[in-house]
Amino acid sequence: MLLGPSGCGKTTIIRCIAGLIDPDEGQIFIGDKLVNRIAPKDRDVAVVFQNYALYPHMTVYDNIAFPLKMRKLSKEKIQEKVIKISKVLEISELLKRKPRELSGGQMQRVALGRALVREPKVFLLDEPLSNLDSKLRIQMRTEIKKLQKKVGVTTIYITHDQIEAMGMGDRIAILNNGVIQQIGTPEEVYKNPQNLFVANFIGNPQINILRFEILRSNHGKFISINSKNSFVEVSDQWLQKFLNDSIIQNISIGIRPKDISRSIGKNSDSMRFKGKLSFIERLGDETIFEFMLLDESVIHVVNSTLDTSSLKIGSDLILETEYDNILLFDSDTGNRIYQI
Length: 340
What we know:
Layout: E1 2-3, H1 10-18, E2 29-30, E3 33-34, E4 45-48, H2 60-70, H3 75-88, H4 104-116, E5 122-126, H5 134-151, E6 154-159, H6 162-168, E7 172-176, E8 179-184, H7 186-191, H8 196-201, E9 208-216, E10 222-227, E11 230-233, H9 236-240, E12 248-255, E13 261-262, E14 270-283, E15 286-292, E16 298-301, E17 316-322, E18 327-330, E19 336-337
Parallel strand pairs: 1-6, 1-7, 4-5, 5-6
Antiparallel strand pairs: 2-3, 7-8, 9-10, 9-12, 10-11, 12-18, 13-17, 14-15, 14-17, 15-16, 18-19
Helix pairs in contact: 2-3, 2-4
C-alpha cells in the first residue's frame, strides 16, 4: 500500500514499475528479475487506474477477454479464463452487457477482471475507488481485499485515503514529496510513527500535537509550558525517561484523541491539563469533543467516558492521558524522540 497526499509521487512510482516512465535512478526488480530495460508489455504487470477505461462498444466479456486476444490465445482458453475470473468477481450474469448498462461498482469489477485475467506477477491499483460513493467504496474495499487474498497476486494499491490504507493494507509505505517516511503494518505506523508527518497523516480524528517547552522549576520539579499562560505539570520520573538536559526546547507532544479522558484526580501516572469545551460533533456511535486549552491550543477527544448529556459548550474540565500514551517529537526536525 502506497499512502500519501496528492502530488507526493504515488502514481509516478507505479508508472515506473509498469514501465510507463523511466526512473531517473535506481533499479526495479519484479521477483529477482531486473526490469529497468524491459518493455512494459513484457513486465507481466497489470494496472487499474482511477478511470476504468472500458471499451464502450464491447460487452463485458469482450472487455475482459481483450488482453488475452492480444496475446493470441485460443478461443477455448480465453473463454475458460473469462468464465473463471467472472465467477471470482461475481459478474457472470453481466458478461453480455455493455459498460453503459453497468453501475459504478460493476464497472470496477470489470476493470479488475480485465487486469486479473492476465494472471500477472504484479497487480497495480491507482486509486481505483475514488469515483465511487462512500457506501460502495466501503463495500468494494472489502471485496478487493478478499479478492487479493483469493488470487494471491502481489498487489500495490495507492491511495490518499488513510482509512483505505489502514483497512486494506498488509504493509503501508507513507510518502511525502517523493520520499518514503515510514514502512510498516497499519498497527506499526499508527502506534509508532517515526515523525510528525506520519503521526499527523495516520489516524482519524487526527492526532493532537502540542508544542511544549520543557523547564525545571525553582523547586526542582519539571513542568512543561505551551505558553506563558498555560502550565502542564508532569512527573520527574516521566520526563527523566527522555530528557537529560535541564532545559530542552521545541518539544512536540502527540496524543491520540482516544487516549484522552476526563480526569478523576487519582491517577499519578498521567499528565493533566485544563480545557474548556468548545465544540461537540456527534457521529452516531462516536462523539468528537473539541477542547481549548488556556493558551488557545485546540485538542480533540474521542472517549466513551465523557457523558455527552451533561457536557455543554463552555464547560471547564480537567483532562488527562497516561504517560505511556504520549509520543514525543523534535519540533525542529519532526523526528520521533524515543524512550531510552
